[in-house]
Amino acid sequence: MDDKKVVIELQDVKREFIVGDETVHALRGVSFKIFEGEFVTIMGKSGSGKSTLLNQLGCLDTPSSGEYFLDGVSVRKMSKAQRAVLRNRKIGFIFQNYNLLPKTTSVENVELPLMYNADVSSKERFERAVNALESVGLGDRLYHKSNQMSGGQMQRVAIARALVNNPAVILADEATGNLDTRTSFDILVLFQKLHAEGRTIIFVTHNPDIAHYSSRNIQLRDGKVISDENNQNILSAAEGLAALPVNSDE
Amino acid sequence: MNYGNLFKIALRAITANKTRSFLTALGIIIGIASVITMLAIGQGTKRSIQSNISEMGSNMIMISPGADMRGGVRQDASSMETLKMTDYESIKNDCNYIKAISPVVTSSGQFIYGNNNTPSTIYGINQDYLEIRQLTVADGDMFTDTDIKASTKVCILGQTVVDNLFPDGSDPIGKVVRFNAIPFRVVGVLKKKGYNSMGMDQDDLVLAPYTSVMKRILAQTYLGGIQCSAITEDVTDKATEQITNILRQNHKLKDATDSNEADADDFNIRSQEELSTMMNSTTNMLTILLGCVAGISLIVGGIGIMNIMYVSVTERTREIGLRMSVGARGIDILNQFLIEAILLSVTGGIIGVFLGIGASYAIKLLAHWPIYIQLWTIIMSFAVCTFTGVFFGWYPAKKAAQLDPIDAIRYE
């Protein structure tokens, strides 16, 4: 495993917020490495610091202290604009509430990250968006608008959007949190497929079941890592989906 | 970041939310249109009142001979011979502030047609007199320069004279009336004007070429007076001053020197002081009123635009957060919203200008109100509303772009 490329490296990352007179220590020194091709779940209860950690990983926020290297680049000293470019090229985000542009077609939503990359021509942008949508199984929904789709479909569009810039890492924040069980499995199948294709995925969740389908599980409590284990027995989400009673959710 | 992409992003954001875009632009459209319409009505009213007053002759200047003393006795103006045709010519040629000028000679007497007769006054004048006195020929034609050169015996009758000479209602044009013993052919009839504020009948008059009156009736070479109108009411004073200088020079009146007093004017110049004072105060009041109307409608329009821009951008804070999370820099967000605000404001502004002009003309057509659209009102309302629109589209976007993406994306 050590010969694999390190995509993410955290060194004693701390993050404090000042709320009123109190200082809240959301992260109290977190260190780990994530290697290329891993499917990592980060778990913890509400308030354990997992969202803060995700914001750090996603370059949406900077650490109060400690170092964070993304694909070998130190993030801490970057300006806001530099971090924006870094997010654009290296990170694909997937949010719990999808965060698609309203009343906008799938293709245009997926094109969005590439719109902020002047190196991509409009022709290439369109082709890559279509490819990304096809890879999440929405090849027939290119021109559906976001308000004309189900939650599962919207989340697929969001995943396609996260894939389109060919990122070093995909960050998912409770990506199945708003979906019913069957659709959640659909999405997990998709994540496992992406994992099998060699993509690096970090999935933040409070749902312990999801850890069974990832290759590694990091647990947080009170802003610290309390366990970090590789999963030797990865369950197949496709089998899980097949095992579901046909009408369990409908 | 290339601006082509930003432009495309802005355009997509506008077209994806047609209702929001339309409502935002509508704020600007209504703002500009209402300012333009309000000002068009205001300016129209102002102009209509002004022209009503100046129709009463507020810019009229009357020159009469005067101040002639013989043996210590001041003489009656009509018997003085100080105003000559040369004075008329030089005022006409040298005074820059007048737009119409006419010599005036008058004679009173009995007009006779058939077995009807009436006393009236014949005015020897030229064609400009109509403009100076705001008279209109209702039937027939005004006499011409040829008539003046040839001292033709033609005349134009006022309504009172027509009523008295032609009580049966027959057409006076082409008929020959006699003034004392001299026959005059009627070529036109004046439009009825009614009584003036002093209770004088303004229709009891007969107009004829001044040469005819001077040669055929009075057999005199001097003028009874000269009347002219200043270009505008404002320059009446300047015109009066210039005419005074011209006449003093013509009459070889000496200016004051160390040893001698200046010669007194041998003429009088009078303007319609009362009217012009009234005109000035009315104009000032209307200007203040208009300023208030313009100011208030601009403020109301501006605040409307401000609100809708501010709300519609603030409502998009989450979208801004999302855009930043997929790699938009603060400056990209700012530029996108600036482009959107400019597109909406300018489009709305242009539509607003046309709507405002259209509404003004609709009011003119339907309600018959006087309207007057000035270029500066269009430019001012466009500039103020568009600037307000752009500023309040840009300002909240700037605040949102300064947020951390994560705060923006969680904004409720």
Count the domains of chain A. 1
Q: Give the overall average pLDDT of chain B.
A: 86
Helix coverage percent of chain B = 55-70%
Arrangement of strands in the largest sheet of chain A: 6-7-8-3-9-10
Rounded to the nearest angstrom, the radius of gyration of chain A is 18 Å
The oligomeric state is heterodimer
Helix content of chain A: 25-40%
- Number of structural units classed as domains of chain B: 2
Number of DSSP strand runs of chain A: 10
**Weakly predicted, low-confidence segments of chain B:** none
Largest interface: A-B, 28 and 27 residues
Shape of chain A: globular
| Major sheet summary line of chain A | 6 strands, mixed
Report the uncertain regions of chain A.
none
Number of helices of chain B: 13
* Number of strand elements of chain B: 12
Secondary-structure topology with pairs:
The complex is a heterodimer of chains A (250) and B (412).
Chain A: E1 6-19, E2 22-35, E3 39-43, H1 50-57, E4 65-70, E5 73-74, H2 80-90, E6 91-94, H3 106-115, H4 122-135, H5 151-163, E7 169-173, H6 181-196, E8 201-205, E9 216-221, E10 224-230, H7 237-243
Parallel strand pairs in A: 3-8, 3-9, 6-7, 7-8
Antiparallel strand pairs in A: 1-2, 1-4, 4-5, 9-10
Helix pairs in contact in A: 3-4, 3-5, 4-5, 5-6, 6-7
Chain B: H1 3-16, H2 18-55, E1 60-65, E2 69-70, E3 73-74, H3 85-94, E4 98-113, E5 116-125, H4 128-133, E6 137-140, H5 145-150, E7 154-157, H6 159-165, E8 176-179, E9 182-190, E10 206-209, H7 210-218, E11 225-230, H8 236-250, E12 267-271, H9 273-314, H10 317-325, H11 330-367, H12 375-402, H13 405-409
Parallel strand pairs in B: 5-10, 7-9
Antiparallel strand pairs in B: 1-11, 1-12, 2-3, 4-5, 4-8, 4-11, 6-9, 7-10, 8-9
Helix pairs in contact in B: 1-11, 2-9, 2-11, 2-12, 3-8, 9-12, 11-12
